Amino acid sequence: MEKLINRAAKDLVESKYAIALTGAGMSTESGIPDFRGPKGIWTKQPEAERKAYQTYGKFQANPKEYWEERLSGPSLFGDLGKVAPNPGHYALAELEKMGILKCVITQNIDNLHERAGSKRVLDYHGNAFKLRCVSCNTRYDLEEYDLQKLRDEGRLPPLCKKCGGTVKDDIVHFTEPIPLDIAEESEKEALECDLMLICGTSAVVYPFANLPLMARSRSGTLPSGLYGTGYRTTVKIIELNAEPTPLTHEGVSDYLIQGKTGEILPQIVDEVKRAS
Ligand code: APR
Q: What is the pTM assigned to this prediction?
């Protein structure tokens, strides 16, 4: 493990444009269950996953009813206001402060990367503390709308202050398209990076799981004799995860550091500091 931590630190120090891709495994040490790990939400409640596939269709069919249901029941993730970033989130924020990490693309909706101080975060599956207009894609902070008041006055769904369109939670549900701005920026990062640190994801949900494949497909050998084209031939893809994933088995990642992100990432940052 130590050898791999030193190897990852060296790869990060030598990188020109490192990005991190994260999943629910980043937040289990903050007390938020993941989905497919041994104690995952879907592992323990398969019915909940089947229901989750219907959520977006329900919104499309009847936004008012969707909102009334959403405001009446508890969140799947518990009270996200009561959790805090863990050392793994802070470690990624520190790598950004050191100018090594350029961006975090996260599947997590818990806002913990932002709260840990990461500045450039792409919330690939949305953010539980934001709302989004489905017509003009304008995003609002949750507190910009008094949702309970709207409900009490029978004025759901919330309407966009800019275009009057229907506003939903920013969370991207199964079968809902990834908002175009986030999808485009994420693909740009995947094509631009020369190091991709993939932390705490089972890498089975698309299109997010395409991003490592896009980065990998870019690498290849320079046509013989062609130098100085600025084309990076190799992208380093490093996985940090409690268990191997399809990216490991299919050789998309160069290596897997198996363990807890909250323990491994701070050790990598310490090594980076020693090596810089
Ligand atoms: N450190 C490292 N890895 C961990 C840790 C940890 N502390 N805790 C859990 N893991 C691993 C699990 O073993 C699993 O392989 O993190 C991975 C989490 O995978 P999932 O539970 O599938 O979560 P994720 O990959 O983020 O799911 C993607 O699925 O349901 C949708 O929208 C939801 O964004 C989510 C998407």
A: 0.94
